[in-house]
Amino acid sequence: MNATYQRLPGKGRSATAAISTRHRLWLGPDHLLAVANHGYSEEYKRFYFKDIQTILVRKTRAGAIWNAAFGAWATAFLTLILLGLYQSWPQIYIVSLAVYGIVPALVCLAVNTAKGPTCATYLRTAVQTERLYALGRQRPARRAMARIRQAVEAVQGTVGTDELEAYLAGHGSGGAGLGTPAVAAGLRPYRGHAHAALFAILLVDALHTCLHVAFHSAVVYLLGLAVGIVMVVLMIRALIRQANSDLSPRLKRLTWVTLAYVILCSLMGTLAAMAFAIRNPPRMATVAEPLAMRMWMVSPLDEPMMMVSTGISFVGATGLGIIGLHWVRQFGARRPVPPALPPPVAPS
Amino acid sequence: MPNHTHPFLCDRCGQKLPTALCNCAGPVACPGCGLSLWLLVFPALLRPVAVGRCGEALQTEGEAGCFYHADRRAVVACEECGRFLCALCEVPLAGRRLCPACIAVGQRKGSLDNLHQHRVLYDEVALALTVYPAVVPFFGWALCVFSAPAGLFIALRHWRTPLSVVPRRRWRFVVAIVLASLEILAGIGLALFLVKKALR
């Protein structure tokens, strides 16, 4: 057993292609060891104290987003339970919804809240900027940072404010002034076409919602399914295109909000279908009647859960679509116009 | 992702961070967007990147030359194999000076601790083989016929294999051995019971 390593506070997870990877940090005699545990194997990265240039810890919204998701999950099931109590569903249904719906959501919410705010930690050397997934929560990150700082300063010493000022004066800012977003090295230029298509399909979905309320038929229902599939495909395309691109941060955030909205609508639709199925069992006992066939025959205005789901869907799709298209247009207008090509030189 | 070319730019709003906000005792708010961040800067950032040495040419006859570059002056001997090395071939590693060949051999054999980048956790493998099939009724229990002996073999075969470069106890091996033994005994007992029943 190697006794020269000391474990640092903090552990985190990251999603890899196959399985979730657990990350931990260890303090060695002359280096920081980042351990990535893939379940049955480990990978190691060493950052020598003499090579560490900067460490940055910044707060992220991931924890708050997860809390919102868990809260929405619990609220959705609570709404279903209240509806069931109002409509006198069998007790077994109410208990099942509580045990399998609300309790897990509340447990996840409590655990996430207890862990504290989330953060992202980056370590920079002369040749790399590495994210330290082990320091993904602010409380353990602060404790770990104090120990890492002590170890690095024991090797390198400290840097004075005057030296930093001289470094910044000589380094320059790459053309970025106060308030002007700087284009970081390595970001891919992107005009936002995939995002424009995504927000446009959201407006189409809002239009379909109006059609579905006015004309509830099989054609409209199937059209809604097609729009939904196209929306998911465009969503995935937009998320892929925005990664490592120079798209504005607010548009990137809006895309993630749109993903959350799509997930929420799917969940609400599922709950509405469950509520509908419980209240409207198949009319023909001998032939299995598909739920979808029964659902398109019913107007959303006649089913409370469907009405709520439809209303949220319409408002969300319209709002996100209009805001998204407006911001995409603004982003495209702010991009620097490439210089005009010089006129061709006439052959002598 | 922070700006690799300029670490003092807030990666949300792009505003330059004043030096007064660097190396604070705790997180501070970005003056542009209010984002809570904590930036530590060390002297390595201000240090110019060292230019690699390429080895000096031999000046006089009789000077020791590098084993890999006969026309270059040797500056040090490899602490593993003793070969003379020029400035280009010398590789400092964990306080020692080694030649590229010894580093390659050390990496292959696993004798250089600082070069370990990957390890298989045989204790996790053995524990998984003995636990997971046992918790799955019927199909998993049938699978125990193969997984229990496999888990026992792996636990005994790799008992002395270095598990991880960080401290790691071997309780998983112990649990795997105990569970595998119990599963094997249960399997033998069940087989005897069925044979006895068939013979009656």
- Cross-sheet strand order for the largest sheet of chain A: 1-2-3-4
Shape estimate of chain B: flat
Strand proportion of chain B? 5-15%
How many separate helices of chain A? Answer: 9
> Major β-sheet of chain B, in short?
2 strands, antiparallel
The structural class of chain A is alpha+beta
Count of β-strands of chain A: 7
Biggest interface, chains and residues, is: A-B, 65 and 53 residues
How large is the radius of gyration of chain B?
30 Å
Identify the strand order in the major beta sheet of chain B.
1-2
Which runs of chain A of at least 5 residues are low in confidence (pLDDT < 50)? 173-185
Oligomeric state of the chains? heterodimer
- Mean pLDDT across all amino acids of chain A: 80
Determine the strand fraction of chain A and express it as a percent band.
Answer: 5-15%
Q: Which of globular, elongated, flat, extended, rod-shaped describes the shape of chain A?
A: globular
Q: What is the H/E string of chain A?
A: EEEEEHHEEHHHHHHH
